[in-house]
Amino acid sequence: MFTARAVNRLRVVACASHMRGQALVLGMIALLVLCIGVIVLFNTGQAVNKKVQLVNAADAAAYSAAVQQARAYNLVAYMNRAEVANEVAVAQFVSWYSWMNFALRGTDNFKDAVQAIAILFDISIVGAEVGTMLQEVVTVLNEVKTVVQKTRDVLQKALSVATTAIAILNDAYSKASQVITVGEALEAQKIVPDIVAKNTDGKAKLDWRGRSILMKGITQAITYTRRYHISTRSADRDGSERFANVVMEARDGFSKQRNGSFGPIKKRGGTDLIDYKNWVGIDTLNVRFKWGCGFWGCLINLNVPLAWGGGAAVKNPPQESFRSLASPGYHSGSGWDAGYETDKRHYAPYSGALRNNAASSLVLRSPAMGGSDKVWIKTYGTAPGLQDYDDIDPNKATVPYLNGKSAADNGVEANDVGPIFTVLVEQPMNTVHTSDNLDGLGSTDAPATSASSNALAKPNFKVPDKTLADQMTAVGSAQVYFSRPRSLFANLVSPGRRELGSLFSPYWQARLVDTPCSVRHGIEVLYAGSGVTPVPLPCLLH
User: Fold this and answer.
1) What distance in Å separates the CA atoms of residue 98 and residue 267, rounded to the nearest whole number?
2) SS3 of 421, please?
3) pLDDT tens, position by position, 251-273
């Protein structure tokens, strides 16, 4: 006899025997979910790792292109500065040569004056001995004059050779800068794919879309500069004046102004750039004294030229006279206004040498002793003076970064930082090591060991990769910008002012930046044009 309690226990045991093995199904489901989760996690890790690699490759390529362009701008700036330094050297040559002609004329005039006085003393019985002593002084002055004249003649030949060499060098700089501004930007077409390949083991590339985006940056860098032609035509005047102002300001003190006064004796002299191609120097020394002046005139009215001289560096001696070249002087006789932060003075033509009374007219008529050809420093084959040059287009590189202020608040006509290079990198998904592309990791392409086990050897564990046009992409942008460290010119300009970008200052740099909205939208258009529906790319509005 079984009791009720015993019967219940038998029922429980029977039910338990019927439920055995059902946990295995749950375990298999959990294992399947775990496998899929591991595969998804593996794929995500591989995709993220590859995405980071592509982003780094795109950034490296864009930054390399920007660095290359910044170096090109800096190289052109160094060559432009070298041209300025060379022009200053020619100005010094002309200044020395003009002063030598001035010294030669002064020695000759002083000798003639002493000789005239000596003759007067010789005529008088009382001053015969003084006359004899003065004749000895005349002899010495003749010897000094001979030495000065020979030195002047040697200096003319030496300076002509040196000026020719400088003119040839400046011409080479001018042509090289033109090649660099275009050629170095185009070099990005070679640099960028090479950097991308090296950073992705050759698996990523720039397709036609990437090259189109890159070419946009290259075109921007090329058109960012302009070729300025040196001539007196109105169309070229602004560019010519800009270069001339830089060179005129860069002159040394002796070339700018060699003046002095002692009572009524006034020395005036300077060297100016005439018609952008010729350096002309003039020196005059004159005595001007008036006394007892009224409606009747002046009781004493002295206007005596003591010394004068001139010189000019030209390609070929002009058919016209020295007067036609030198007069009326810079800017048709109005002179030159510096207008710089460190120098705001006005300079009269040749620092007033043409306004020094009687000596001024004499220097235009006879600037050098020994013949009219002695006034010229001649170059052979290449013209001295300014050469065509490359510089930033107007209203470009006006700010080092966009600060949210308007152009007026920044004190410029337009806010502009610099050209941007954008690199669009693509890598086919079949080269990314996800589960879809690895044999033996659930791929349907895994080999079967036998026909009977074929169904078991190929479980469908695929987790398809969803990418744009079956490509993994990355975008990187870098910008070329101008920024001169303020510590380099802190004492030269006021705190509220800054230097604008130009190809006369080698302070161009490169940095990574956010890809502009216009470029991102352009990428979307390129993908849409090839039949691919792009995912809208987020961007920052500037």
Assistant:
1) 13
2) strand
3) 999 999 999 999 999 999 999 99
How far is Cα 515 from Cα 480, in angstroms, rounded to an integer? 13
Indicate whether 354 and 472 sit together in one domain: no
Spatial neighbors of 154 by CB under 8 A, at least 6 apart, are: none
Cα–Cα dist 360/289, whole Å:
16
Give the Cα separation of 420 and 219 in Å (integer).
10
d(CA 299, CA 100): 36
Over the stretch 478-526, which tens digit does the pLDDT of each residue have? 999 999 887 776 665 666 677 889 999 999 999 999 999 888 888 888 8
Pair 271, 255: CB distance under 8 Å: yes
Cβ–Cβ contacts within 10 Å for residue 221, how many?
A: 27
* Structural domain count of the chain: 2
Phi/psi zone of residue 368: left (φ > 0), alpha (ψ -120 to 50 degrees), beta? beta
Residues 211 and 170 in one domain: no
| Six-digit token string for 440 | 């033996």
Residue 426, H or E segment: strand 420-428
Among 368, 391, 414, the domain boundary falls at 391
Q: Percent of the chain scored above 90 by pLDDT?
A: 49
Measured CA to CA in angstroms, residue 2 lies from 11, 14, 57, 225, 436 at distances of 13, 16, 82, 108, 64
Task: Report if residue 239 sits inside a domain.
Answer: yes
Shortest CA distance to 277 belongs to which of 404, 94, 98?
Answer: 94
**Exposure on the CB side of residue 498, measured as CA atoms within 13 A:** 16
User: Which single residue is written with the structure tokens 């190289």?
Assistant: 75
Size (the chain), residues: 542
Range of the domain at 386: 77-186+228-391
Question: How far is 82 from 87, CA to CA, in rounded Å?
Answer: 9
| Secondary structure letter of residue 224 according to DSSP | T
